[in-house]
Specification:
- The structure is a single chain.
- By secondary structure, this protein is an alpha+beta fold.
- The protein folds into three domains: about 10-75 and about 105-185 and about 285-360, FAD/NAD(P)-binding domain; about 190-285; about 370-445, no CATH class.
- It contains 14 helices and 21 strands.
- It has a seven-stranded mixed β-sheet with strand order 6-5-15-16-17-14-18, with helices on one face. Strands 8-2-1-12-21-20 form a six-stranded mixed β-sheet. Strands 3-7-4 form a three-stranded antiparallel β-sheet.
- Strand 20 and strand 21 form a beta hairpin.
- The longest helix has about 30 residues, at about 335-365.
- The two termini are about 25 Å apart.
- The mean pLDDT is about 95.
- Bound molecules: flavin-adenine dinucleotide.
- Flavin-adenine dinucleotide binds near residues 15, 38, 54, 305 and 316.
Length: about 450
């Protein structure tokens, strides 16, 4: 390690990325001061209003393994083998995510995962975690990071270097923006979300536990992910305004009527539906664009603070964890923080832009395309091509979720080529396609994968 590189680092935000990064840094011998506005989660209940469970995939598990924490995380995970699609009037149908036994994604509770990460960070002698410390400002010119403690006293610490992992609403990003050091923009969707519980019955799951359930309805959808206690957390994604919208469900009884009409099979499992619908917060969804992510080796934005995305590919946390893997890997090089932050941004920007785009596209796929016979047919052809051309033709969903050695940007690029090939091979009915034509198209258009 270069002697020019400071060995003490601030991290703002002990959420998923911040806590993992603290651990990775400490394992390299850096001294980490981790500032978190919440109280110590080991002594308090989880914050309300955040997504309760998340889909963890290969980019995330790779980072957790790197930090030596997978053994503690594994007991928190429930495998989800595919999408269980609930159409009105028919039985639910499982669309497997992949075709190998290990091609599953994992449902994990946010609070439990964050707690395991924080516990591991706290145990490390080189990590000092300061709960109840809210970052209120950044003065780059004076080199100061401003923090308000639980007694409302504001204190300042030396700024450089600081990694801001304070989430989508990052105070650090806003402060740098106000100082003219970066430009940022939030693109809000006109669809919001609301989480609702599907309780366990006799301690057991009332739906197939090893699946991500989807009730696709074209312009909107309900999904549900399993929890370890036998419950599911359902999330309704719906336009904010309009004929079918959250605004239209504002009067008492409207939500229950809506669910009875649109999702009748799940209503018997949601006895508290009306009360929960009235009480639970309605969350907004958006994509954060910020340029640049770093200021001269002093501050770096990482995770949602730099590039929050909509949740429809289940990749926000996974991308934030991949950020941690990449930044940690760069510490092998003898660069100063300035060079390191610049290199991090150069490596990550195209990838996070790619996943931001694929995440928006996936909303259409989940709420609509999964019901379409053409979609199901092309998915079957894609899987057959993956079997026939292993390591060359890999469905885009699989590249994103199961192949961390393929970058998001490459997944997007290859996915576009593959979509063209599938379009030409799709016979319109049945799943038969011309294998000789497939081989010729793949040979001509789809480059061999580069080694990672
Ligand atoms: C509905 C929904 C569903 C999702 N589902 C998935 C999924 O299935 N899979 C997936 O990979 N991703 C999913 N995500 C995205 C995922 O939640 C985020 O990408 C992930 O939490 C980003 O981690 P982070 O550490 O960057 O930010 P966060 O997890 O938001 O952590 C930020 C931390 O900073 C702290 N903080 C904030 N401000 C300050 C301050 N001023 N001073 C000090 N501390 C501060 C916060 O208290 C928090 O602890 C979903 C998101 C939503 C909204």
């Amino acid at each position: 390690m270069s002697s020019a590189r400071a060995r003490s680092v601030n991290i703002v935000g002990a959420g998923l990325a911040g806590a993992l990064l603290a651990l990775l840094f400490a394992r390299r011998g850096l001294r980490v001061s981790l500032y978190e506005r919440r109280a110590d989660p080991r002594q308090t209940q989880p914050e309300e209003g955040r997504s309760i469970n998340l889909a963890l995939a290969a980019r995330g598990t790779r980072a957790l393994e790197r930090a030596g924490i997978m053994a503690a995380v594994r007991p928190l995970l429930i495998p989800m083998r595919g999408r269980m699609v609930h159409e009105p009037g028919g039985p639910p149908v499982l669309q497997p995510y992949g075709q190998r036994a290990d091609e599953v994604i994992w449902s994990v509770g946010r609070a439990a995962l964050n707690r395991v990460l924080i516990e591991a960070a706290v145990r490390h002698p080189d990590v000092a975690v300061h709960f109840g410390h809210t970052c209120v400002g950044v003065d780059v010119a004076a080199g100061r990071l401003q923090l308000r403690d639980a007694q409302a006293a504001v204190r300042e610490v030396a700024l450089a270097p600081t990694i801001a992992t304070d989430g989508a609403g990052s105070v650090v990003r806003a402060a740098l923006g106000r100082a003219g050091l970066l430009q940022s923009r939030e693109d809000w969707l006109d669809h919001d979300y609301k989480e609702l519980a599907i309780p366990a019955h006799g301690g057991r799951h009332v739906l197939e536990p090893e699946a991500l359930h989807i009730w696709p309805r074209g312009g909107f959808m309900l999904i549900a992910l399993p929890n370890l206690d036998g419950s599911f957390t359902a999330t309704l994604f719906l336009p904010r305004q309009g004929a079918v919208s959250f605004a239209a469900l504002a009067h008492p009884g409207a939500a229950r009527e809506f669910f009875a009409r649109e999702f009748p099979d799940v209503v018997p499992f949601m006895p508290e539906l009306s009360a929960q619908f009235a009480a639970h917060p309605q969350g907004q969804l958006g994509t954060v664009h910020a340029v640049p992510w770093q200021v001269g080796g002093k501050v770096l934005l990482l995770g949602d603070a730099a590039h929050a995305i909509v949740p429809f590919h289940g990749q926000g946390m996974n991308a934030a964890f991949e950020d941690c893997t990449v930044l940690d890997g760069l510490l092998d090089e003898p660069r100063d923080w300035n060079g390191l932050f610049a290199q991090f941004e150069a490596l990550r920007r195209a990838n996070t832009e790619a996943i931001a785009r694929m995440a928006v596209e996936n909303y259409l796929e989940m709420r609509d395309a999964v019901r379409d016979a053409g979609f199901v047919r092309r998915k079957a052809i894609a899987m057959a091509l993956e079997r026939a051309f292993p390591g060359r033709f890999i469905p885009r969903y699989s590249m994103v979720m199961f192949h961390p050695e393929i970058s998001y940007a490459d997944a997007l690029r290859r996915g576009e080529i593959q979509a063209g090939i599938l379009g030409e091979l799709d016979p319109g009915t049945g799943a038969d396609f011309d294998p000789a034509r497939a081989a010729a198209l793949i040979e001509a258009r789809l480059p061999a994968l580069r080694a990672a």
